[in-house]
Amino acid sequence: MKAKKSMMSAELIQKAIKESFLKLDPRVMIRNPIMFVVEIGFVITLLLIFIPDLFGGTASRAYNLAVGLILLFTVLFANFAEALAEGRGKAQADTLKKTKQDIQANKMTGPDVVKVVSSSELRKGDVVIVTQGEMIPGDGEVIEGLASVDESAITGESAPVIKEAGGDFSSVTGGTRVVSDQIKVRITSDPGESFLDRMIALVEGAKRQKTPNEIALSTVLTSLTLIFLIVVVTLPFFGAYLNISLEIPMLIALLVCLIPTTIGGLLSAIGIAGMDRVTQFNVLAMSGKAVEAAGDINTIILDKTGTITFGNRMASEFVPVGGHEESETAAWAAISSLKDETPEGRSVLELMKKLGFEYEASLGEGAEFLEFRAETRMSGMDLQDGRKVRKGAVDAVKKWVTAHGGKIPKDLDQNSDRIAKAGGTPLAVAVDQEIFGLIYLKDTVKPGMKERFEQMRQMGIKTIMCTGDNPLTAATIALEAGVDDFIAESTPEDKIAVIRKEQAEGKLVAMTGDGTNDAPALAQADVGIAMNSGTVAAKEAANMVDLDSDPSKIIEVVAIGKQLLMTRGALTTFSIANDIAKYFAIIPALFMVAIPQMDVLNIMRLGSPSSAILSALIFNAVIIPLLIPLAMKGVAYKPMSSSQLLQRNLFIYGLGGVIVPFLGIKLIDLVIHLWV
C-alpha cells in the first residue's frame, strides 16, 4: 500500500480545487468556525457590492469588491489545504478498493465436503480451503497447513511470507494470494468488517476523528474568534464616540485580520496530513490520537528478538557438561527438536547434519511433543518408552531436573555463563534426571541500532529491552545495542508490569508485539504497534498495525508523531506572530486620524488606512497557500530535547512569524499604491 502519487500531483490538485468550492457549503464550513466567520464576511461584502448603502456606508463598489474577493480566496485557500490533505488519503483508499473484490471461496460444509461460494457470503467462523494461486477470501487464521502468501497488495512488498497453523504467524488478510502449497483458514470477520474494509475507512481523511489536542486547540481558537467578534461588533459605538466612521467592509477586514485565520485554515490539514504520513510509512493508525500519543512517548518497550537483533538465533555449537560427549549432547538435542518447527529447533537438526552426528530418529515416532510456553520456558518430547526429553532456558531446565530428583552438573553454570557473556543464548538439554549439555544459540544486533537508540535518548525517550534470555546474555546484548535498561527472562506479565510502572510515573509508553501473549501489553500501552504478520488478538489489542511487520519501525512512528506535534505547534506559533504584525498594520490605520498619538504604533508607515487594511487582508489570504506544503510535509524533525525544540521553534516560527508579515504587508502596500 505504498503511496504512488506525489504530494502535489496534477490530479490531486485538480480534485482539491474542485473540493475547495464544494466545501463552501455552509453546512460544511460551520465545522470550522473561524473560516465560517470569514465566509459570512464574504457574503456580507458580496451584498455590499450590489447595494453599497445597505448599511448606510459610503465605501465604493470597487473597495467592497476587493475586500470580498480577498475574503473568498482566504476561504478557498483554507478549503484547498484541507481538500489536498483529504485527497491524498482518498487516493490511497481508491487503491485499496481496487484490491477489494468478490472472490470465489472453497467453503467447507462438512468433514470432506467443499462448496464454492462468493466471499461476500462468508461469515465469521466459516472454514475455507485456499490452494496455490487462489486469493484468500477474507481475514482469518490458518488452522491447518503451511503456505507462502503474497501480501504485496496490502503491504507493497513483493516478497511472500510464510503462514502456518499455530504460533504468531497464523493470521492472514483477505485479498492476499497463496503462491505455494495449501492452507485451511477459519474466517474471523463478517463482510464489511475485514481488515481491508477498516483500512479503507481509516485512510479516508474526511472521515477521521479529531484528536483531543486538536479539539482543545480548536476550542481555544474558536474562543478567540468569538472574543474578537464581540470586540469588532462593539467598535462602531466607540467609533461614534470618537467621531470615527467605521465602514462595514473595514470592520469585516479588521475581524478577519484579528482572528487566527492562518492556523484556523491549516489546522485540519495538519492533522489529516499527520495521519497520512504514518499511512504512507505503511503503518495503519486506528486513530489520530494514537499518532499524537506517539509524539509524546517517554518510554519504548522493545522485544530483543526481531527488533534489536535479527532474531535468527541459530544453533552454532553443542557444549557437553557433566562428563558427557559432544555427540551424546547433540543426539538428545536433536531428539528434543524433531517436531520443533521454530527456527531454533530446525537449526539444531541442520547443525547435526553439518557436524555429521547421528541420532535415533525412530525415538520420535509416536512421541508427544510439548511446545515452548512462556510459563515453562521449555519444549521437549515425551517418548513412548517413558523417558522425558527437555530443551529450554538453563534455569528452567535446572528446576525441572531437581524437581525430578536429579543433580546439576558442576560445570553447567560455568559454560552457560561463558555463552551468555559472549552474547549468545544457552539452552540446556536434559533427559529425565540428567542434564547432558548446552546448545549455543547465536543472534546478532542489527546494524545502526546503537545510533538510533542514542537519537531516542536525545529526544528524551527511555528504551527498555525485553527478552527471555538470562541476565548475562541480556546484559551483553543491551550493552551492544545501547538501550537504557533491560528485563531478562521476561514473561507477558513482566511486560505489563513495566508498562504500568512507567505509566504510574506519569509517562506515556509504546511497545510492539505480534503474538497473542503480547495482546494484554499492547492494550495496556499508550501506543501499541502490532505486526501485520501477527495474530488477530495482537492486531485487535493494538492501536496501530505495521503492514511491513518491522518491529523496529516504532522508532520512526515516534518521530512522525513528534513531527505532527511540532508542525502544529510551529504553525500555531507562526500564526500568532502573524496576527501581532497584522495588528500593527491595521489598528493604527483605523484610529490614528482620531487619536494622533497612535501614530507611534504605525511603524510600517503604510500609505493610507484603506491600503493598510487591504494589504493586511491580502497577506492574510496569501500566507495560507504558502504554508500548505509545510503543513502537508511537516516541519523537519531533529532529535533534541524539548527545551531545545521550543527555543528553535520560537526563533524560526516566532521571530520569523513577526518579520515575514511586516515585510510582506509593507511590500503589498507599495504595490497597491503603484497600481492605484
Automatic annotation (TrEMBL):
This is Potassium-transporting ATPase ATP-binding subunit. InterPro entries: ATPase_P-typ_cyto_dom_N, ATPase_P-typ_P_site, ATPase_P-typ_TM_dom_sf, ATPase_P-typ_transduc_dom_A_sf, ATPase_P-type_domA, HAD-like_sf, HAD_sf, P-type_ATPase_bsu_IA. The chain crosses the membrane at residues 33-51, 63-81, 215-242, 248-272, 580-598, 610-630, 650-675. It comes from Paenibacillus zeirhizosphaerae. The keyword Transmembrane applies. The active site is at D303 (4-aspartylphosphate intermediate). Mg(2+) binds at D514, D518. Its EC number is 7.2.2.6. Residues 112-204 form the P-type ATPase A domain. It is a multi-pass membrane protein. ATP binds at D340, E344, F372, R373, A374, E375, T376, R377, M378, S379, K391. The gene is kdpB. Its main location: membrane.
